[in-house]
Amino acid sequence: MPVSRIQQVPPGSLDLLAGDVRRRRSVQRAWFALAEAGGYQEVIPPTFEYEEVFTRSAGPELASRLIRFVDRDGALVALRADFTSSIARMVATRLAGAPLPLRLAYAGKVYRQEPEGVGRRREIFQLGAELIGDASAQADVEALRLVITLARELGIGEFQINLGDIRFIRPLLQGLAPEQAEALRTAIDRKDRAALAAGAREIGAPAAVARALVELPELIGRGDVLGRARSLATGAEAEAAIERLREVDALLTDDERRHVVYDLGEIRGLGYYTGIQFELFVAGVGRAVGYGGRYDGLLALYGADRPAVGFALETDALADLLAEVPA
Amino acid sequence: MTPLRIALPKGRMMDEALRLFEAMGAVIDPAARDTRRLILPSADGRFEFLPVKSGDVPVYVEAGVADAGVAGMDVLEEAQPDVLRPLDLGFGGCVLAVAAPEGAAYPRLAGGGIPRVATKYVESARRFFGARGVQVELIRISGSVELAPLLGLSDWIVDLVQTGRTLAENGLVVVDEVSPSSARLIVNRASHKLRLEDHQRLIADLAAARERLGRS
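Output (structure tokens, whole complex):
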């Protein structure tokens, strides 16, 4: 037995000392003040759940990163890997009779397997909100507005929300063999136009679909992108996506719109998104520090069909961005 | 304007990458060229080049320390970094291949038993043999892979093959192809979002330079 194990923590976990904790608490305080003012109530889902809560909802990527163990009765349980899945289960069961819309907020840790030696933690703090029972563009904007307002209140100068709608991409991948769809998803995800063109040829895509696929990596920018995307839309679902983004755009204030970039070629989101989806980027951080979107089909998995929209932000990343350690 | 920081793999691939940048008008600042500086600015102020070991390029780019980089497919397939791969740069063409001593049995050993395979590309080899249903023992080594069968460390190797000369000198022949490999532009995801126009211009300029050099 390595003698030193008792003096160490496993890779990807860590102690937070007083200064680290003050930063995180300060972010969480700002968050709950904002959430409560908006009518959001805090909930705390369990630290572990039956693994199906995560495997059936969020897609294979998250499922492959669960930290699991075997319960007394032989059932597989997983540490909370995603608040939205847990809260969807909670709402569809415990809160099935609650009047809608429901506004719920949370802050706590999620646990995910990460490869060693790439500088990623296996437990991270998140905060976020879910707005359940409202399918409108106003609800989408309410979620976006919470993110923008919190970023401002934390004093984060340069930040950007990349906003898309999965319904624009979904029809392009419909009816394909799984390997073909997977190859195209990979090419879309890597913004590899040559691979998209090759993939479109290989599946014998109609001209309109091929054109949309190849243009996906370029469908990113301010409001004018929506016009370009509209001319490439293939069918009613993709048109509905653009229509919704236009509604959202019209509801944003000029000051909020400054932070929003439309990005129709992004498929990073968790598997349960059905409408708008977005990521938050901050100058100087090499990855997204928040993500969210509409997940109208998720609650039905747990037995109560309700539209919903929500987001999660990485508390740790936000805390590191605070200008000074709060006293 | 803040320059885009580009991680480049030291060695031949870096020379070829710099030729592309040169063709688009970005040369290394002569004042910095022969110094031991770790970051080399381009004379036009548009880029900063960061020469690193080839396997480290994806690490710098994924973390966002470099905005973009140049990496071989072999390195990308092995490390599977979470980065954008918008452009094939058209140089560094080679093949990740399985090689065995001339006349050796493949994909089963003549006398049965589990083949041992020496390679730098353990993940790629694992995926390749796994998909073929061939059970092998992988041995990770970091250089002179072609010596491994010669010295009895392994039965086969998985390695990058450009001309095949090194293989031939060691009595090895290619028996199977894992994947083709060429140099790719890779881009940090967040940087691509936050500096969209800079990246769009970089991709378009590199694509144009590739066409020009390809024709000449």
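Chain B is about 35% helix and 30% strand.
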